[in-house]
User: Which sequence fits this backbone?
């Protein structure tokens, strides 16, 4: 962490150009501000969840200004998407949000299916719902662990979370062959059928999960330290959240009832009965609670899907793997990824490569509001607020 | 009462601490180099080339059609077609290299291959002292027998064998109408 003392009067007298504005010694309310300190948090800072940097201007310990800086992990995802075939972009989508590769696959598959007018068989739809909800469990469980680690509970909650994540990753490995880079969905269905006994294993994991959630909540939810660190911290109002096009659990924690699973009813989500947990205050605690409750709703969906899954083909036999050329046109497919609205916008000009390939990443757009949540809070809170936004830098930078 | 939540958390931690020594299902440590967990049947790591019969060179199923080379997302496959003295293509790769340090184990090459020639290995202990040439595998290193493939992925391999046999039978049965060729694209003709 590099620091530089910012003396307003010296900086004002010319010298090297600075990329931040110099703040006056008096605050807008007429209070005296001390010497402001500019701190660069990241990109190697362990609490920034990856190579993410924040330029923070501090008055004592209070945040006066915060500028998020990203792009350290930029790897040209969208341009690569335009230069490879439709199918070859699929493994790259795994690497967007590397915790939830299966939901990324689904969003991309959905947009190309819209583009090509491809139907998905019933069994594949069920498999997609099952894997996506398992991914949501993985993501939210890990997030709760990471959030607690940001608050200083080094280890214990994270290790409990990882213990459970391991069981689901074993399921993913048995199904897709990889633990994290699953690359499982295809246009018109899924790549391989469920292996023998997979459904029983999945049922067992799902049946045991509520016990873990109870244990986790026992450990954390009423813990006084957690309450003190999260309640009233990083408040995000309903209006601001809507205006900044925040999506996912962040938006719902601010009390806006908006879930694409309900709004769009993509796939077969209209067949499942689940509720949308909403927060009231929009603070970090609400974001944590919304995610815990969402996991319980996911378990309901999973139980029903694992019971109802029919036999049948898993991929539309008419779709072509090689030389797939959809008709000219455009499509935007979006799903409720664990982190928010994940959309893929694809334009086809009739050739084997997309003419334009664009990702709408939830992490990046949820991050734009960071400064508004952090101003007036302390440095230690910034870490917690950033943790509650739930970013993965693979998706922010692409 | 203040401190109640923390006390509850400590009880939970203590329960887990005791459980991690006594519960059978929680004693999960595997002492890796000596003990190993069985591989999952669907597990995949890096590709290899399948050959039939005894001779690894002659039995290669690959016909150097370069479909996998073209579709490989990170472009880690390099193929040169074998030609005889007169320059006619031989349906056999002269060079087939895979740069394992670039490969991202996505299995696209396996899916697009019309000849079932390239499959996924599960070997993961590939550390080398030379990270450039050591990880660039040529066709002799890549060629593995069909029996080896059966050992790794029994279900998938059985399906593939059945498929190939059916295709062969279909080709052999109606000898006259050769226009009803299998849907696979032929290797590039010159």
Assistant:
């Amino acid at each position: 962490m590099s620091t530089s003392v910012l003396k307003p009067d010296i900086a004002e007298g010319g010298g090297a150009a600075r990329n931040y504005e110099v703040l006056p010694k008096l605050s807008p309310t007429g209070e005296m501000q001390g010497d402001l300190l500019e701190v660069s948090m990241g990109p190697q800072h362990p609490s920034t969840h990856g190579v993410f940097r924040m330029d923070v201007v501090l008055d004592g310990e209070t945040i006066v200004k915060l500028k998020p800086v990203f792009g350290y992990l930029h790897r040209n995802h969208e341009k690569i998407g335009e230069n490879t075939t439709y199918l070859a972009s699929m493994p790259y989508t795994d690497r967007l949000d590397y915790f939830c590769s299966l939901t990324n696959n689904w969003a991309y598959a959905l947009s190309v299916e819209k583009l090509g007018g491809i139907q998905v068989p019933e069994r594949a739809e069920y498999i997609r719902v099952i894997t996506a909800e398992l991914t949501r469990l993985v993501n939210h469980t890990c997030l709760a662990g990471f959030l607690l680690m940001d608050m200083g509970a080094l280890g214990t909650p994270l290790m409990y979370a990882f213990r459970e994540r391991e069981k689901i990753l074993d399921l993913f490995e048995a199904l897709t062959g990889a633990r994290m880079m699953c690359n499982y969905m295809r246009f018109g269905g899924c790549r391989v059928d469920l292996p023998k006994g997979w459904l029983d294993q999945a049922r067992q994991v799902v049946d045991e999960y509520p016990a873990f959630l109870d244990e986790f909540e026992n450990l954390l939810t009423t813990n006084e330290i957690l309450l003190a660190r999260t309640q009233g911290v990083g408040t995000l109002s309903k209006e601001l959240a809507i205006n900044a096009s925040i999506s996912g659990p962040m938006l719902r924690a601010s009390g806006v009832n908006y879930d694409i699973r309900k709004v769009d009813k993509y796939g077969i989500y209209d067949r499942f009965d689940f509720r949308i947990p909403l927060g009231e205050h929009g603070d970090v605690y609400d974001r944590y609670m919304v995610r815990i409750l969402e996991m319980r709703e996911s378990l309901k969906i999973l139980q029903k899907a694992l019971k109802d899954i029919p036999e049948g083909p898993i991929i539309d036999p008419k779709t072509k793997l090689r030389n797939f050329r959809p008709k000219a046109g455009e499509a935007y497919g979006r799903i409720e990824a664990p982190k928010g609205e994940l959309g893929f916008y694809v334009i086809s000009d009739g050739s084997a490569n997309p003419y334009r390939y664009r990702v709408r990443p939830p992490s990046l757009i949820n991050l734009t509001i960071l400064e508004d949540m952090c101003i007036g809070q302390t440095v230690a809170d910034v870490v917690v607020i950033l943790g509650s936004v739930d970013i993965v830098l693979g998706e922010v930078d692409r | 009462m203040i401190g109640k939540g923390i006390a509850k958390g400590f009880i939970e931690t203590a329960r887990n601490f005791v459980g991690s020594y006594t519960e059978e299902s929680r004693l999960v440590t595997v002492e890796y180099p000596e003990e190993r967990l069985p591989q999952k049947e669907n597990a995949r790591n890096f590709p290899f080339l399948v050959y039939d019969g005894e001779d690894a060179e002659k039995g290669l199923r690959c016909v150097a059609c370069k479909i996998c080379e073209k579709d490989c997302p990170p472009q880690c496959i390099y193929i040169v077609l074998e030609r005889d003295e007169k320059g006619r293509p031989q349906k056999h790769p002269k060079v087939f290299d895979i740069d394992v340090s670039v490969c991202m184990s996505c299995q696209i090459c396996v899916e697009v291959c019309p000849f079932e020639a390239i499959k996924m290995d599960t070997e993961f202990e590939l550390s080398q002292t030379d990270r450039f040439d050591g990880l660039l595998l040529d066709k002799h290193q890549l060629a593995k027998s069909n029996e080896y493939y059966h050992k790794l992925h029994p279900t998938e391999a059985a399906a593939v064998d059945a498929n190939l046999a059916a295709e062969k039978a279909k080709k052999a049965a109606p000898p006259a109408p050769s226009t009803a060729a299998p849907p696979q694209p032929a290797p590039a003709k010159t």
In short: The radius of gyration of chain A is 22 Å. Strands of chain A lie at 2-6, 36-41, 53-59, 62-69, 185-186, 189-190, 329-337, 340-348, 354-360.
